[in-house]
Specification:
By secondary structure, the chain is mainly beta. The chain is built from no helices and 11 strands.
Amino acid sequence: MREIKFRGKRLDNDIQTGPADGWVTGFYYQGLCEGEVRHFIASCPCVWEVDPATVGQYTGLKDKNTRKVYEGDVLTDKFESVGVVKWQNGCFVVNFGDVDVFQISDCFDDSYQMWVIGNIHDNPEMLKGGE
């Protein structure tokens, strides 16, 4: 069974309560707090409030370096192609600039491997044309 979890960037910068890079993974949920909808990721025993624009789901795949691949990750390959992992039409895809879109499973088989080089939130400059 596929592991279902999410990643998001914490709103606080307290490295004593989470990873220094600000990214946390776990169960994602929304809650009403002080009259407004807020977004959280929980990983026992911690709960962090996260920026909802940064939340991305784990695809269930790992890149050639065994790094988990999340929605919003920027990938490359041996040809120096650059694509972004997105959720589109009911499945995860790698989008190479709206012209070429491939199902993510086609980018991680025995004959062709991509790897994570960043994400659209921390590294927007990686996207050609500013996607």
